[in-house]
């Protein structure tokens, strides 16, 4: 079982306690099923740190230090779940995280539908 660290949108924390992302990891659904990873052990859930998302880069590194073998960018960032408003900085955030952690480090770009 892989260890996973989840990065989420800080702006959705008011009304989403990560329930579906945690279930996705526990049951290996959604992006994890699509990526062939299956169920994963969550080592941490942390927000992007707030707009414009710069803090997500150091936070991804911290999740890796704490054992994450996969980083999951939650659907609130990349799909705009649950209100249909994706992060306007999602592409830059993803690119910057990849630049920092390495192109080969596994990143799943959403959690669930
Ligand atoms: S940068 Fe994007 S993911 Fe982070 S709080 Fe702002 S809208 Fe949400």
What does this structure look like?
By secondary structure, the chain is an alpha/beta fold. The chain has a single domain, classed as Rossmann fold (3-Layer(aba) Sandwich). The chain is built from five helices and four strands. Strands 2-1-3-4 form a four-stranded parallel β-sheet, with helices on both faces. It is globular, with a radius of gyration of 12 Å. The mean pLDDT is 97.
Fraction of residues in H or I helices: 25-40%
Mean pLDDT: 97
CATH architect. name: 3-Layer(aba) Sandwich
Secondary-structure class: alpha/beta
How many separate domains? 1
For the termini, the CA-CA separation is 22 Å
Q: Characterize the biggest β-sheet.
A: 4 strands, parallel
SSE string: EHHEHEHHE
**CATH C-level name:** Alpha Beta
In which order are the strands of the major sheet placed? Answer: 2-1-3-4
Name its key features.
113 residues, binds iron/sulfur cluster, four-stranded parallel beta sheet, globular, 5 helices, single chain, Rossmann fold, 4 strands
SSE layout:
Blueprint: E1 2-8, H1 19-27, H2 30-34, E2 40-47, H3 55-65, E3 70-73, H4 75-78, H5 90-101, E4 107-108
Bound molecules: iron/sulfur cluster.
Iron/sulfur cluster is lined by residues 9-11, 48, 50-53, 77, 87, 89.
């Amino acid at each position: 079982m892989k260890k996973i660290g989840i990065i989420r949108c800080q702006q959705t924390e008011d009304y989403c306690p990560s329930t579906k992302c945690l279930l996705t990891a526990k049951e290996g659904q959604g992006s994890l099923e699509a990526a062939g990873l299956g169920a994963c052990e969550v080592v941490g859930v942390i927000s992007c740190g707030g707009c414009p998302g710069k803090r997500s880069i150091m936070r991804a590194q911290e999740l890796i230090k704490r054992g994450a073998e996969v980083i999951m960018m939650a659907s609130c960032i990349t799909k705009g779940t649950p209100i249909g408003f994706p992060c306007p900085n999602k592409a830059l955030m993803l690119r910057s995280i990849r630049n920092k952690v390495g192109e080969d480090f596994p990143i799943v770009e959403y959690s669930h539908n």
